[in-house]
Fold each of these.
Amino acid sequence: MAIDENKLQELMGRMLGDVGAAMGTALVLLGDKFGYYKTLATEGPMTSAELASKTGTVERYVREWAAGQAAAGYINYDAGSGRFSMSPEQALLLADENGPAFFPGMFEIAAAAIRDEPKVANAFQHGGGVGWHEHDACLFRGTERFFRPGYAMHLVSEWIPALDGVREKLERGARVADVGCGHGASVILMAKAFPKSKFFGFDYHQPSIDRARERAREAGVSDRATFERATAKDYPGTYDLVAFFDCLHDMGDPVGAAAHVKSSLARDGTWMLVEPFANERLEDNLNPIGRVFYAASTTICVPGSLSQEVGLGLGTQAGESRLREVLKAGGFTRVRRATATPFNLVLEARP
């Protein structure tokens, strides 16, 4: 086959950038761990020696780290002064953990995918899956840190108001189950916004439940936000609102989970299903967001589903039509798209 030199050079350039990004994942984790981004963002321009002194780390390592991050465009370097700095935009993405677009959590997820590659490779070769609990711990921490800003931006102000009559119920006082709650970010946000309601977080992963309890105490909402270990098919209680945030596609038996949601809803109750946004056709998902979602699906979500009973393996890019099929099979007859963002699809389901 004839080689198109221009296409070859273009692909090589793209791969070079990808390798730099992949190796740079470790640098982002180090910058986050030792507070380099936050220090540069709050203290202003610094030499590597000054940054090392401020953070209690070794200058020779900091010098190399800073050079690599400047080459990536994540921080800036002024040759005249020999100092490194961060722009407001860089600080928003890398230093503001409570802001709307904090990214180091996503790098932790990427690191987990790399660290757990041998387990996933074994599943590729021999079948089976890799359970959520079997992944590197940075996946659990990274998931909470990455998704929390998006939930903080959209959940209370946009997603809940888009549901028919739900905000009013929460303001009066309602019972809410958050299934697959992880470290409890979504529960805590709702508990802060609706103090008259009671919130119950469920997850099968006990370390995540323990962390969620800690975070609820720290946030001052443990009086109305409780967390218990349970699966999506056996959590107890009856609720006015059941919420699944970015987790149905990870479940081995999402139809069974949907059936249990139906049985746990109070009369006129609502299921809010938040899933990664996907277009209906594969070719329409071949873009930067789809690339991230397919990678996560290959290394985390599909292996998680295939490790469980049924093992339906929806994947992150199931799409709205496939999700509607699952909900219908679980007994829901009224499903509508409540709202959406470039990253999330929000469905409202009623029996």
Amino acid sequence: MGSLGTSAPIDESKLHAFMGRAVGDMGAAMHAVLIVLGDRLGLYKAMSDSMPVTPAELAKRTGTSERYVQEWLNANAASGYVTYDPMSATYTLPPEQALALAMENGPAFLPGAFQIISSCFNDEAKIEDAFRTGKGVGWHEHHHDLFHGTERFFRPGYIANLTSSWIPALDGVQEKLERGAKVADIGCGLGSSTVLMAKAFPNSEFFGFDYHDDSIKLAQEQAKREGLDSRLHFEKAMAKDYPGSDYDFVAFFDCLHDMGDPVGAAKHVYSTMKRDGTWMIVEPFSEDATEANHNPIGRVYYSASTLLCVPASMSQEVGLALGAQAGEKRIGDVVRAGGFTRFRRAAQTPFNLVFEARP
């Protein structure tokens, strides 16, 4: 095959292989919208018993149109999300997929991630402008699906790991929290991480801070619903100037890399913590070498970083733009620049790195 105007000859087998991958991506992108719809319409939850169902039966259960449901089911069958039995013309959501698609507080719940993706399509024009101008796009400037999707996506990981493995991996922190400690959760968003800790450690007092006003309002409502508002306080504040002092434990969940001035945030943490306090920093999993992150998880994180994390940092002062794949070395450099002398990887999952920093 000729070069078709390119500067290098075209290898036909490589072209076909790439086109195959691209077709797969097209299907995934289109199907992402159907996952959001299936979540919002309750279609996956209505199939969560993993029993065979016809389009008519599923439409009746969910109060939706049978013809649309039939097409939606076939798209899900083509994607491997549901199975189809041609003999009975029924569709089944296998238990593994049910765990991932219908169990809101389960350890593998995925629709929140697709809600985040939906928000990115809504904000594409803003990111295009950022590419052209070099300006940022603040977290608060994004579509509201981002805030709710982020909370729903990260909460299962926190439920599965936060109190069972991450906090126990820190030196002496669990014992402090059990006795009674003063805790700050910075960049708390809608407050899921703070609520989980408050429920697990009833002798401790918790303060959640986030600069996004709407997120703080929703977090305050959640604290009231859980009956925790007497010792769980949410307040609008920046990472570089949140109030209070003598904190025993400070936590940053998946947010340090989003900050315009993470070194300034680290310095503020240092100034507000007891000398025997601990700072826990949860970050997206990343290797230090760029090429080591060129894999499926890195693909998700680099894409999210392009659309969300780097624009957020670039919208703030300094605009260091660490990105979601900063890696342990760069995070350690930020922490040490903030005054901390001890820094280590305390725990990890396929999706997160958990660091411990101490004065």
